[in-house]
Amino acid sequence: MTFKFETHERREAVFNKVLIANRGEIAVRIIRTCRELGISTVAVYSQLDRDALHVRLADEAYALPGETAADSYLNTEAIIRAITESKADALHPGYGFFSENTDFARAITDLGVTFIGPPPEAIEIMGDKISSRLAAEAAGVNGVPGRSEPVKDVSEIISFGEEFGWPIAIKAAYGGGGRGMKVVSNPDNAQESMDSAKREALGAFGRDEIYLEKYLDWPRHIEMQIFADAHGNVVWLGERDCSTQRRHQKLIEESPAPNFPNETRIKMGEAAVAVAKACGYVNAGTVEFLFQDGEFYFLEMNTRLQVEHPVTEQVVGMDLVELQLRVAQGEPLGFTQEDISSSGHAFECRINAEDPSGGKFTPSPGAITKWRAPGGYGVRLDAGYEAGDVISQFYDNLIAKLITWGPNREVARKKMLRALDEMVVEGVATTIPSHKAVLSNAEFIAGEHSTRWVEDRLDLSSIPPFKPDVTQIGDDGSTKVLRDVDAEVDGRRYRVKLWLPTQGVPSGTSSKSGGSTKRSKPSHSGGPISVSSGTITVPMQGTVVKVHVKEGDSVEIGQTVVTLEAMKMENAITTDTAGTVKEVRVASGDAVGPGDVLVVIG
Ligand code: MV4
């Protein structure tokens, strides 16, 4: 068997230097391919990321002001300054941040710098859900049965439900990523659902146009990877099943999709290519579909490289970042659809700093105190962090992506379970226990899951809550932390728990001060709670939603003392000290930052 693309003559790269306007694992991912191609790399970094892995790996790095994404990775002026100073000739935006920002893409293009991404016009067509649905329809690709125009009056909702059958979905025209969808199960709820959908859309996206679709009750999310060059060549590279998700955050992705007929795959691939051609697409792109009862429906197109691109790379044997660089410098793809073949099966698990216990996925920023990367045949780890690095509450929770490849789904699944067992991350909670639960579940193994499966059917109640480091403060003020330690007794190895002194500052302080101290703070508890002798502090920036205790209350270990809204989620702040509440320092509505004291327990 031969692949034509293997013999495709590799030209020397014409980019000399690429600036990566991103952070974390995707910045690392892009730097790696640039290095392989002999392209110099320029990193940019926020004030919290001075020592981050992507900075350590890049050839050059430029500081961005501030800590928040808005001040740093979304700061057009600062990034343009880094481009000018570094003399980079191209910019890779990764995903998120500037990847789908047409003003930014046009601004750098005007400076003569190549934006490694699609033409701005294609981003614009796909950015709006109604115009993308119309573009797909014009290309002969159907969305979920529905209407491609905004709803003006509630009567339209009722007549739509009567025509298509209840329930129906109300969607925000300018939405995306899953927010702003409302399910209406009968005509009595139409008015209320319409009002609430419009309110949410206005709040989240600044526009309140809504449209209607028939609601699919057990769909799978299957997306097709496409690639287009600037010479009119467009190919599809197989699908990814991303149905395992919670609150629109994907957990596990795989390619190929299980129980997915090959004729449907080919039709979906051709549909995705037609959609890409209809918007004049160039670059890596993903066309998302819902798949139910043997039919697929266009959902939206993502005009960027996606988080889950590695599962496609593993089965088709191509480096998608390399293709992006080649296509951006004007090279033709150099292979055709017939040259592409997929082999075996790949899974990707997103290792997030979140505590999945009880199915809550509570954010768990903090310092990684211990880290062991799994390895072996068919295992790939794309990580943005190593031991000693701090996961900040200011950026997303993705620490690493663990990818396995096997000749079939079962081999890849067992390999993933083995790799998850081998991986060690301490200091923060991770999604590893939830991945093990999913991958061992009979419905998942049979491929009977859907986009609702994690939330409606998966039982995560047996995952114990993450226990941050338990610290003790001695009379002399020194702190000790309980750690697992290997010991040898008569030639046999045992794992024991020992109280060890911490060298750093007492636990309960935040990582926010960043900079020079952030890598020498192994004592940071890292979990959703920081306990120092009964002082309960804020683990991440947020707003107090509710205070559950008052002075004089007695509390038990594990009891929730405050509910904090942070990273768009409610987080229960619990105590692991029992005693009496001595002081309550916050009230509901207070804006708080990491390290602020919430409650003192004596
Ligand atoms: C749907 C649907 C069922 N019926 N549309 C959510 C994200 C948004 N972009 C589209 N979404 C859905 N649209 C109809 N007509 C179910 C979902 C959906 C979903 C889709 C993809 C991935 C995860 C999802 C989770 C819940 C609901």
What can you tell me about this protein's structure?
This protein is an alpha+beta fold. Among the domains are: 12-116, Rossmann fold (3-Layer(aba) Sandwich), CATH 3.40.50; 145-214, Dna Ligase, domain 1, CATH 3.30.1490.20; 531-601, RNA polymerase II/Efflux pump adaptor protein, barrel-sandwich hybrid domain (OB fold (Dihydrolipoamide Acetyltransferase, E2P)), CATH 2.40.50. Helices cover 26% and strands 30% of the residues. It is built from 17 helices and 34 strands. The strands form 9 sheets. Strands 13-12-9-10-11-14-21-19 form an 8-stranded antiparallel β-sheet, with helices on both faces. Strands 3-2-1-4-5 form a 5-stranded parallel β-sheet, with helices on both faces. It has a 5-stranded antiparallel β-sheet with strand order 26-27-34-32-29, with no helix packed on it. β24 and β25 (492-501) form a beta hairpin. It is globular and about 75 Å long. The model is unreliable at 504-532 (pLDDT under 50). The structure holds ligand MV4. Ligand MV4 is lined by residues 144, 169, 178, 181, 213-216, 219, 221, 245, 248, 290, 299-300, 451.
